[in-house]
Write a structure and sequence with these properties.
It is a single chain. Helix content is 24%, strand content 12%. The protein is an alpha/beta fold. A 6-stranded mixed β-sheet has the order 21-23-22-28-20-26. Strands 9-10-11 form a 3-stranded parallel β-sheet, with no helix packed on it. It has a 3-stranded antiparallel β-sheet with strand order 12-13-16.
Length: 864
């Protein structure tokens, strides 16, 4: 966090100054480690084993917050008799189809009910739910997850609030993690038992009624073939400890700079509409009502999906969206499967994807298996790149590595590349949304230089010009573009669209054009328009709430008048869980919201934060028979986005790779899985075979020791992402001038590496060279009873700019998390040797030689 998010880390240091303990778990000793109370080095890719060990400690020693767990989680719920765990099936769950690499989750359901897939997956059950028939396994693919929790079928699940029934979630969880012992954590993760026990004691001592512990991760936790399950494991632990919905608790995905959170909220993801409404799939004869029926949960706030979606359609198409034409629902694009970044690359290679826009992205060096990205772009008809500098994704056609090896010739590449200079955030108005869901407005400081323009300018004027060219068209396929509400005011000599006008459209308005103040005002009948339901209220009363800057000394500790947090300016989600079932704070020290029986007509929720529950819903409220939406939740259901209002220790539906997190080795690993016979995530996503995306043997497979070292990629404070913002800056280039690798003194001695000299790092995908940094910050570990050395590789470099070097992502494979389609960049296996890498065809020959030594072919690493 100190390395990648230094501005946010100041608050960690302030907490530490007040007595907080800071634990840093990382393969490397970093700037964060130097300021932490405890650094825990571990083998990259073993996070679930580590977290599972803490879960086991909590369960075995009775350290869980029992009242919280019984009242607010699904721990008491009883599972079906035919469910089988990894303990029963040698590392997989019941329902696995190895042929399709997918799970049928029918056996994962609660006894007494049938779960539907999560919002966003339910659309894929459309035919099944409307009589067409579709398998649960097919419907459970992860192409279009929305934010809604899985919907619960008719009937009430069986429960045992004593938590003793052998099939209740609590007991299943206990058995699942029973073998995640300190001894096993030491053997798998390389974390000594005494150090691990110290972590367990610190975390559990600081959790319960009077204290809370927070987890923060710098996004890298997701970049694994089990990335979603890493986060799930932390969620299980935090739920058991009662650390969700309470001050000082939670799980923070550190994603503030570049508005990463905002780019998923509004969004830039192929499978979502703004506010995490899922993008519809292609179905025959599907209208708006059928989509909502397939998508909306019966209980909880996703029960209001029609209001959110209709208001979005009205924001898109304005007066053209009417009840008679289903509010232009047919105008929305339709998914035909997964269209993630890497599948788009495969579509480029196959000649299916003809054109590509890159806005602030640099896949030529910034994506996994960077060579494959460049080969894909070389097969396009046209490519548009918008950036600050001539990044590698704009110039690969003339000076990329493949021109040196002879794999590409500039004169043979037909791709027409358009480079358009982009404005920086200081050169435009707009907002950033950070980890805390906090929208913070930034004002333009200077005009962009020369031909540089903002993304807002580019999108608006591109749309304007396309609409002008289509004007007068009678072709039905042009109506979605021509009918768009595209009337944003502009200002200045560049006709820059007014960013606040866009924010106002995102906020929403009523039938008279007045700004809305809450998503609870959205209507399903077309009388409201809202560009993103979770952002409704950011422009309440016609005021840019995101631009508020009241100093902290003038407010209380919640600081509700600093910017604006979605939803409803609520600073802590699920904060109903900060009070006990009767509505009283678990402790005065951690009081956040509570029920005041003397307030209002019949009592109200009040407190320091905006209560995350209907204001007048009493703690003893029980929903009437047949209630739907938020009204179907009781006064003790704090997790409002879940259909049952509970935190899920166990996930009966909504994930593609299992109801409980289980440790699997990374795709390429020099070690066998000590926990289970199953080596890798059995449903990890593998892309179609390609000669430049070969997988490596793992564990005990022949050839695995050819790549004996674990490598991990990471960021540096001085550079930013793929380098487009930083490698061209002279001061930053001087601070971090070259690509380097971090190795321990022991590894340097073992492989003949010299400090500040050169090293060659090789995988089955490619070869790179790096300056050697020999440092005690890389600690050798003992794993599976033998020494393990890890290689640290910052990922910011490429051949362009002032600071140049090879790209670490040349080494990576395309084996992805099956839920999110994200690459596994944080744990892979390599070899390292002294000296500079060979050039030209000799570099290809070296990679081929390693493949031959390891016995690698197109089938290696692809088994279930």
């Amino acid at each position: 966090m100190a390395e990648c998010h230094p501005v946010g880390f100041q608050w960690v240091l302030e907490a530490k100054a007040r007595g907080a303990k800071v634990i840093h778990v990382d393969p490397r000793f970093t700037r964060t480690s130097a300021l932490a109370d405890l650094h825990v080095p571990l083998r990259a890719g073993t996070d679930i084993a580590f977290l599972g060990g803490i879960v086991n400690h909590v369960l075995q020693h009775g350290k869980y917050f029992r009242e919280y767990v019984v009242a607010y989680s699904n721990a008491p719920v009883i599972l079906r008799e035919d469910f089988r765990d990894t303990e029963d099936l040698a590392g997989v769950f019941s329902g696995l189809d190895t042929g399709t690499r997918s799970y049928d989750n029918a056996s994962w359901q609660y006894a007494g009910t049938e779960q539907q897939a999560a919002s966003g997956e339910r659309d894929q059950e459309y035919e099944e739910r409307t009589g067409g028939g579709r398998s649960v396994a097919e419907a459970a693919r992860g192409e279009a997850h929305g934010a809604g929790g899985a919907a619960i079928g008719e009937g009430d699940p069986e429960r045992d609030e004593t938590l003793t029934h052998p099939r209740c979630v609590f007991q299943v969880l206990k058995r699942h993690y029973a073998r995640y012992t300190p001894d096993l954590v030491e053997r798998v993760c390389g974390v000594p038992r005494d150090l691990f026990r110290q972590v367990c004691e610190l975390v559990t001592e600081n959790s319960g009624r009077d204290r809370t512990t927070a987890f923060a991760y710098a996004v890298g936790w997701t970049q694994h073939t089990v990335g979603v399950q890493n986060i799930r494991a932390a969620s299980v632990l935090q739920t058991l400890l009662g650390n969700i919905g309470r001050p000082g608790g939670g799980i923070l995905a550190l994603r503030g700079h570049a508005s990463i959170q905002g780019s998923t909220d509004i969004p830039t993801l192929f499978n979502l509409l703004p506010g995490y409404i899922p993008m519809p799939h292609a179905h025959q004869n599907q209208d708006l009502a059928a989509f909502v029926a397939a998508e909306a949960a019966r209980k909880g706030y996703w029960g209001n999906m029609r209001a959110y979606l209709v208001s979005l359609l009205k924001a898109y198409w304005g007066d053209a969206a009417t009840p008679e034409n289903d509010f232009c629902f047919d105008y929305l694009p339709r998914l035909t499967g997964s269209h993630s970044t890497y599948e788009t690359t495969m579509a480029q290679l196959d000649g299916v994807c003809k054109g590509y826009f890159l806005l602030g992205e640099n896949p030529a060096v910034g994506n996994a298996d960077a060579k494959l990205m460049r080969l894909g772009m070389a097969n396009l008809d046209w490519l548009v790149v918008r950036d600050f500098s001539l990044i590698e994704s704009a110039t690969w056609w003339r000076d990329g590595p493949e021109t040196e090896t002879g794999e590409l010739r500039t004169e043979d590449i037909r791709t027409e590349v358009f480079f358009l200079p982009a404005a920086a955030h200081t050169e435009k108005d707009g907002s950033f949304t950070n980890t805390q869901r906090l929208l913070q407005w930034h004002h333009q400081a200077v005009e962009p230089p020369g031909e540089a323009r903002s993304e807002l300018w580019f999108a608006y004027h591109l749309g304007r010009i396309v609409r002008e060219k289509l004007a007068g068209s009678t072709d039905e396929m042009d109506r979605p573009v021509l009918d768009l509400a595209w009337d944003y005011p502009t200002r200045g000599r560049h006709a820059e669209p007014d960013a606040e006008a866009v924010l106002a459209e995102i906020n929403g308005r009523d039938a008279e054009g007045n700004p809305l103040s809450s998503y609870e005002q959205l209507k399903p009948d077309g009388s409201t328009a809202c560009g993103c339901w979770i952002y409704c209220g950011v422009y309440a009363d016609g005021v840019n709430q995101a631009a508020r800057r009241r100093p902290g000394r003038e407010q209380d500790w919640v600081a509700a008048e600093w910017a604006w947090a979605w939803p409803a300016n609520r600073r802590i989600l699920y904060n109903r869980a900060s009070a006990d079932p009767e509505g009283r704070p678990w402790s005065e020290r951690k009081a956040l919201v509570w029920w005041d029986p003397d307030k209002g007509a019949r009592g109200e929720w009040t407190g320091h934060d905006v209560p995350d529950i209907e204001k007048d819903k009493a703690p003893d409220h029980e929903p009437p028979e047949g209630a739907t939406g938020p009204q179907a939740l009781s006064g003790t259901d704090p997790f409002l986005m879940q259909a049952d209002g509970k935190a899920w220790l166990y996930v009966p539906s909504g994930l593609t790779d299992g109801p409980l997190p289980a440790h699997y080795e990374p795709q390429d690993s020099p070690f066998p899985n000590l926990l289970y016979d199953q080596q890798r995530n059995p449903v990890r996503q593998l892309l179609p075979p390609h000669p430049d995306n070969r997988y490596q043997p793992s564990g005990d497979e022949p050839g695995a020791r050819v790549f004996p070292y674990v490598a991990t990629t990471y960021r540096l404070t001085e550079h930013h992402t793929a380098g487009g913002m930083s490698r061209w800056q002279p001061y930053l280039a001087e601070l971090q001038p070259e690509f380097f690798c971090e190795v321990s003194p022991q590894l340097a001695a073992e492989r003949g590496l010299t400090h500040t000299g050169w090293a060659t790092i090789v995988s089955a995908r490619g070869v790179v060279e790096a300056r050697v940094l020999v440092t005690d910050r890389m600690v050798p570990l003992t794993v599976h009873g033998r020494p393990l050395h890890q290689v640290g590789l910052p990922y910011h470099w490429g051949p362009n700019g002032r600071s140049t070097g090879d790209a670490a992502n040349e080494l990576l494979h395309l084996s992805l998390d099956p839920n999110t389609h994200i690459q596994e960049t944080k744990a892979f296996a390599v070899d390292i040797r002294p000296g500079r890498r060979p050039r030209g065809e000799a570099a290809l020959a070296l990679v081929r030689a390693y493949r031959i030594r390891a016995g690698i072919d197109e089938r290696t690493g692809t088994g279930p």
